Each structure stands twice: as C-alpha cells, then as structure tokens.
Amino acid sequence: MLLPIASYRISHLAKLQPFCLNCSTLLSWFTIYCCTRTLSNSTEASLIVIALSYFPWPDRQRKDSSVRLFLLFAALSVIVRPTAALVWVLLCCWHLQWARYTAQFRNVLQTYLVIGMSTLAISAMVDRIWYGQWIFVQLNFLWFNVVRGGASIYGTHPWHWYLWQGFPVVMGTLMFPFLLGAWRAKDKTLLWIIAFILATHSFLPHKEFRFILPTVPLAMHFCGLYFQELCSRPSIKEVKAMLRSSCALHKKSDSKEQTSEDCGSDKKPQDEGLKGEGDEEARRIIEEMSALAQEDHKADSVTKERHEAESAGQEEGPKNLGFDKDKLGVKDGSSPDSLEALQEQHHQARLTKARVLTTILAVTNLLPALYFCLIHQRGTIMVTKFLADSAAGLHGKTDILFLMPCHSTPYYR
After folding, report:
1. What is the largest CA-CA distance in the chain?
2. CA angle at residue 83 from 82 to 84, to 5 degrees?
3. What is the CA 349 to chain-centroid distance, rounded?
4. What whole-number distance in Å separates Cα of residue 250 and Cα of residue 252?
5. Rg (the chain; Cα; Å)
6. 134 with 247, same domain?
7. What does each of the 413 residues of the chain score in pLDDT, given as a tens digit?
8. 341 and 391: one domain?
9. One Pfam match, by short name (predicted)?
C-alpha cells in the first residue's frame, strides 16, 4: 500500500494524473511478484519512492520540513537495505551542490548530519540488543558483498546483464510506454537515476532481478507521462498542424500522380496514392481536411484584414470582409466540419488507443504475475508443507535433513 500512496504524491508533484501513474505501477507484473519476495526489497523500493516525494527539487518551493522528511525516509531505506545508498549518493550530492549557494546551506548540512548520525546510532543500538554485541550491519554488508565478493557464491552474470536482460524482463511490456515517455519527457532526472542504479549494480558480479526493484516505480513515472499525453485532448493548434500535414501529404501525392501521367508511365500499385477502392474513404477525409485547412487560412487572412481596417479607422463589419460561417465550416460546435468536432474526434481516437493499450498491458502483465505468484518454483514450498504434515502425524521426535542450497526452502512448520 505504501508504493501506490508514494506514487500518488510523486504524480501530484509532477503534475501527472494519479490514475496514469498508479495504473502503470499496479499493472507491473514484477511489482506484484516482488511485493513479498523479499519484504526487504519491496520495503526499500517503497521508502525510496516516499523519500523522492519529499525531495526538495530546485524548481519547486517546498517547506523546510520536506528536507527532514526526505532525509528521514532516505536514511530508513539505507537501514533496511544498504544498496539504497546508491540512489541517495547521487541525489544528496546534487542537493548539497546547489544548496551551498543559498542562505540555508548551513541548516541543510546540519540536518544531514543530525538525521544521518541519529539513524545510524539507532540502528546500531537495535543490532546490539538482538546480536548481543556491537555490529554495524551496513559495514558488514559492504565488506562481504562488495569488498570480498562473497555474494558470488550465489552465481555471477556478465556486466551487461542488467541492460539487456534484467531491466527489460522486469519492465516486460511496459518497456514500450516507458521508452516513449522517457523520449518525450522534458525533465529526465529520474531517468538519470535509473541509469545510475543499473550502472552501479552492473559492477557487482552477483545479479538478481529483485535488486533493481527500486527502478520500477521510477520507470512508471515515464509510463504515466506517456499515458497522460495519450489521453489528453489535442489542442486547436495541434489539430491545425495535423490538417496542414495531411494537406501537404495530399498535395505531394497529387503532384506525384500528375507527374506520372505527364510522363505517360504506367502506375504501379504503390504509386496510386489513395485511388484504390479500399482507400476511397481515407481520401475523402483528407480532401475534407484540405478544404478545411484552406478555409482556416482564409479566415486568418480575413481576420488580418479586419485588424488592418480597424487600425486605419475604417468600420467594416464582418459581412463586408467576407465572413461566412457556412463557407468557413464553423456553423456550430457540433458541426462535423468544425475544428472542435475534429478535436473531439482525435480525442476519442486517442482514448480508444489508450483503452486498447491498457487492455494489452493488463493481459500481458497479470497473466505472468499469476503464474509467477502461484505456480513458478512452488515445488520447494509444497515439499516443505508435505514434510510438515507428515511429521505432525508422527508421535515423538522427528529429524529431517535438508541437503539443499541456502534460501532454497522455507523452513516453516
């Protein structure tokens, strides 16, 4: 539940529709699969997204408390899994770099030191209570996995594994709206964070899909951007641009056909433009668009003449200047020849495309989620349950020897 709530906060700050972002987040098959596998990874991802929702972005005026909340959740994410520090090294350095030129730099630096040292002290005391001695888990994690390379006993992969296998598999079919949204996004800060996480994890020999779970909610931001643009209503300017583009393509096609006729050459099927029977409807629509674009250009010329006449002190009504709503194709807002009607048609076409795409994404993500959650690698769980039920039916002490790799069976009764 924390992940959708944090995604809602980010969508509000980024001026995204919450439905667009949360729909992408909840549709991800990997988010569904990894929400409990393991809890530390899903908790790390949730805390990272929550901390990002409080991050003091330079272009937004936020309260001073947002810095404290950002650092608090960021520190908690590092306590849960020290790999979260890879995200905050980049963002915190960036924050301090531009904050040093402000009057609040001393307070910001003091907040960093207080929250960082307090969180580490509390973590050390909790570990002291449970382990019975002073142990710094974060330091041991770094020493064992990075310095000694102890994680390699669980398997190794080449350095490019996250780029060509890990991240594409984790994203699944959501990779396509992610790439389109990232391409069209104006602010690519989160994209650089994703790239930094993948690059730093690529240096470690042991790689797993769950290690890059924090990149999924960040990537969903760009999926939300794409869906919001897809569902938005096109502006009048965009409709006019589409009309002019269609008109230009139509004229280009006609000129090619005329050139072919003048040369006396035979027309090939691919050079016939829209002459085929199956393209008659498309040709008719383009002709209507071309006529509307010409009338729109005429209306702009008439409006220009009207302004010139008014500036010269002449009082000529729209009737003398040639205004004719019937000729201009703007009889009323409901007329199919009006710009508003075309705008609505394009909007409905976009919504239809969004519905089809959402259905495809839902099917291609929910089916793998059901398979991986209910069927995939369930053998060890079923064996453990069978052994537990068999041992419960026996009276007395029962010994069972597990000759299995580490973490391969859940040892539950």
Report:
1. 110
2. 85
3. 22
4. 5
5. 31
6. no
7. 566 666 666 655 555 555 555 566 678 899 888 887 778 888 888 898 888 888 887 766 555 458 888 999 999 999 999 989 888 988 899 889 888 888 888 888 999 999 999 999 999 999 999 888 888 888 888 888 888 888 888 888 999 999 999 999 999 999 999 999 999 888 888 899 899 999 999 988 889 999 999 898 888 888 888 888 888 877 766 666 666 666 666 666 656 656 555 555 444 444 444 444 445 555 555 565 566 556 555 555 655 555 565 555 444 444 443 334 444 344 444 344 566 777 777 778 888 888 899 899 989 999 999 999 888 888 888 888 888 888 877 776 778 888 877 777 776 44
8. no
9. Glyco_transf_22
How many other C-beta atoms are found inside a 10 Å radius of the C-beta of residue 301? 12
**Do residues 129 and 206 both lie within one domain?**
yes
Residues 65 and 167 in one domain: yes
Alpha helices, DSSP H only, in 54-203?
Answer: 64-80, 85-99, 105-131, 137-142, 161, 167-171, 175-184, 189-202
Cα separation of 287 and 25, whole Å? 43
Domain presence at residue 137: yes
Q: How many domains does the chain divide into?
A: 3
C-alpha–C-alpha distance, residues 62 and 95, integer Å: 14
Cα separations (Å) of 119 from 112, 114, 374?
11, 8, 38
pTM, full prediction = 0.71
Task: Judge if 313 and 389 occupy the same domain.
Answer: no
Instruction: Please check whether residues 281 and 136 belong to one and the same domain.
Output: no
Contact residues for 176 (Cβ-Cβ < 8 A; gap 6+): none
> Which residue's structure tokens are 């500036």?
311
Query: What is the full DSSP assignment across 294-315?
Result: HHHHHHHHHHHHHHHHHHTT--
Return d(Cα 219, Cα 224) in angstroms, integer.
9
Residue 166 CA from chain centroid, whole number: 17
Token pair listed for 382: 């079923």
Q: For residue 3, how many other CB atoms are within 10 A of its CB?
A: 24
- Quick check: is 104 in a domain? yes
Residue with tokens 């019975």: 132
> In this structure, is residue 119 part of a structural domain?
yes
> CB-hemisphere CA count at 13 Å for 287?
9
Whole-number Å distance between alpha carbons of 71 and 191: 21
Neighbours of 238 (CB within 10 A): 13
Residue 284 lies in a domain: yes
CA distance linking residue 400 with residue 384, whole number of Å:
10
